[in-house]
TrEMBL record:
<dbReference type="InterPro" id="IPR050984">
    <property type="entry name" value="Gfo/Idh/MocA_domain"/>
</dbReference>
<dbReference type="InterPro" id="IPR055170">
    <property type="entry name" value="GFO_IDH_MocA-like_dom"/>
</dbReference>
<dbReference type="InterPro" id="IPR036291">
    <property type="entry name" value="NAD(P)-bd_dom_sf"/>
</dbReference>
<dbReference type="InterPro" id="IPR000683">
    <property type="entry name" value="Gfo/Idh/MocA-like_OxRdtase_N"/>
</dbReference>
<feature type="region of interest" description="Disordered">
    <location>
        <begin position="310"/>
        <end position="333"/>
    </location>
</feature>
<feature type="domain" description="Gfo/Idh/MocA-like oxidoreductase N-terminal">
    <location>
        <begin position="37"/>
        <end position="135"/>
    </location>
</feature>
<dbReference type="Pfam" id="PF22725">
    <property type="entry name" value="GFO_IDH_MocA_C3"/>
</dbReference>
<protein>
    <recommendedName>
        <fullName>D-xylose 1-dehydrogenase (NADP(+), D-xylono-1,5-lactone-forming)</fullName>
        <ecNumber>1.1.1.179</ecNumber>
    </recommendedName>
</protein>
<comment type="similarity">
    <text>Belongs to the Gfo/Idh/MocA family.</text>
</comment>
<feature type="domain" description="GFO/IDH/MocA-like oxidoreductase">
    <location>
        <begin position="148"/>
        <end position="289"/>
    </location>
</feature>
<dbReference type="GO" id="GO:0000166">
    <property type="term" value="F:nucleotide binding"/>
</dbReference>
<dbReference type="GO" id="GO:0047837">
    <property type="term" value="F:D-xylose 1-dehydrogenase (NADP+) activity"/>
</dbReference>
<dbReference type="Pfam" id="PF01408">
    <property type="entry name" value="GFO_IDH_MocA"/>
</dbReference>
<feature type="compositionally biased region" description="Gly residues">
    <location>
        <begin position="320"/>
        <end position="333"/>
    </location>
</feature>
<keyword id="KW-0560">Oxidoreductase</keyword>
């Protein structure tokens, strides 16, 4: 086998998830059996100051020669970068990703990809025109657990999937946790709310089981019916949102398949952090696949056959754990002893794509990211939720 190719990353923004992602990125890939690529961090930029970027690089343990920039504009000009990871709030993804693409850089952009589908389409078009790689960083899709679940479906283990329940909810007291309304979870200026931040994972489970598992020619967008409850304190970000989806299917496959995707920042999937009840249930005529919470980082699956058989599997994240961090927008937590966080899987996929010359992610291409954004647009339309024009626009550049 030839020696591994090293992919040189630039990190755009230095907040919570940027730290977790970059620590995971710097874990030796052979600890998870990946031998064809390596990652290194060659630069990071903070919009606040160069010194913040310097502390970030130190904190994550980046190589000492990595460059620190005090603006995103300087970062995208760095000729040593192969790909940029964007870790700003959703409101900023469109402008930041366009900045990278215009400068000729490949991009891995945090979820939710953009604020709306028009922005996602514009990015996909620009990436195509420029021959650049572009992928939404929905890390969960790249977990071995997700690969396994999709394989169980495509191999026919539970028959054609007829119905999916998917919940990704986390209980907070938003009035208390985010009193001043400025936190990205509730701030409309940052495209806050449950749907774009957490609901994206409920929709990810629905799409990766009901859409992605279909042959490409058979994938059809679903019909959508939504209930959206606004966050009382501001009325311009959602706190609990539920979507009923109906995916067109041939009679041969049992006719249309249904899904319920739900999300909340006030009510938990299961109370008290209990992970004994499945947050995701994928049902077919021959049985059910269950995935246990949290939906964004699950580590347990159960398959229950129609005959009553039960197969449980644990999916711990590989090491090294120490230093890898466990971050969420709700104040953080801790990985099980010795486990990494799991963000390296999506980084490996992006790096592999660069090595192979692919321009999109293998487990969620741009077309699918756009269809999901279209669903979220429709949910917001039915629920009457709009964000400020400056973050909904496709005009580039726009000052945010
Ligand atoms: N995959 C996952 O598990 C997770 C993904 N996320 C996603 O990552 C993104 C960032 O979330 P998170 O890291 O929690 O956010 P943070 O608020 O912790 O960090 C966001 C960073 O973006 C930069 N930024 C630029 N402009 C602004 C602005 N106007 N307001 C706030 N920040 C700004 C700042 O970095 P600087 O000053 O250096 O420029 C800031 O530190 C979101 O899209 C979120 O959905 C979040 C948590 C978990
Ligand atoms: O992507 C995410 O996953 C974990 C959540 O806690 C966080 O808010 C969200 O952004």
């Amino acid at each position: 086998m030839s020696s591994p190719k090293t992919i040189r990353w630039g990190i755009l923004a230095t907040g919570g998830i940027a730290v977790t992602f970059t620590k995971d990125l710097l874990v030796d890939p052979t600890t998870r059996g990946v031998k064809h690529i390596k990652h290194t961090v060659v630069a990071a930029a903070s919009s606040s100051s160069k010194s913040r970027a310097e502390s970030f690089l130190k904190d994550v343990g980046a190589p000492s020669e990595a460059k620190a920039y005090g603006s995103y504009e300087e970062l995208v000009k760095d000729p040593n970068i192969d790909i940029i990871y964007i870790a700003t709030p959703h409101s900023h993804h469109y402008q930041n990703a366009m900045l990278c693409l215009e400068a000729g850089k490949n991009v891995l952009c945090e979820k939710a990809f953009t604020v709306n589908a028009a922005q996602a389409r514009a990015l996909a078009d620009r990436a195509k025109e420029k021959g650049l790689f572009l992928m939404e960083a929905v890390w969960t899709r790249y977990f071995p657990l997700s690969v396994y679940v999709r394989e169980q479906i495509t191999s026919g283990r539970i028959g054609p999937v007829a119905r999916v329940f998917a919940d990704n909810s986390m209980a907070t007291n938003p009035e208390e946790a985010w009193k001043d309304g400025k936190h990205r979870m509730v701030n409309p200026e940052l495209a806050g709310g449950a749907l774009l931040d957490l609901g994206i994972y409920s929709l990810t489970w629905v799409f990766q089981t009901l859409y992605h598992t279909q042959p490409e020619s058979a994938r059809k967008p679903p019909k959508v019916l939504a209930a959206l409850k606004n966050y009382g304190a501001t009325q311009d970000a959602d706190e609990t949102t539920t979507v009923v989806l109906s995916f067109p299917r041939s009679e041969e496959l049992g006719g249309d398949a249904h899904a319920i995707a739900t999300t909340s920042i006030r009510i938990a999937t299961t109370p008290g952090g209990n992970t004994d009840a499945p947050g995701i249930r994928i049902q077919g005529p021959k049985g059910e696949i269950q995935v246990f919470p949290p939906a964004f980082r699950p580590t347990k699956t159960k398959i229950i056959g129609k005959d009553g058989s039960v197969e449980e599997k644990e999916w711990p994240q590989p090491g090294p754990g120490e230093g890898s961090g466990w971050y969420n927008g709700f104040g953080g937590g801790k990985n099980a002893e010795g486990e990494g966080h799991g963000m390296f899987w999506e980084a490996d996929e992006a790096a592999s794509a660069l090595v192979e010359g692919r321009k999109e992610g293998k487990y969620e291409g741009l077309e699918e990211s756009i269809v999901i954004m279209e669903v979220m647009d429709e949910v917001r339309r039915q629920g009457g939720l709009t964000y400020p024009e400056k973050i909904e626009t496709t005009k580039y550049p726009t000052q945010l």
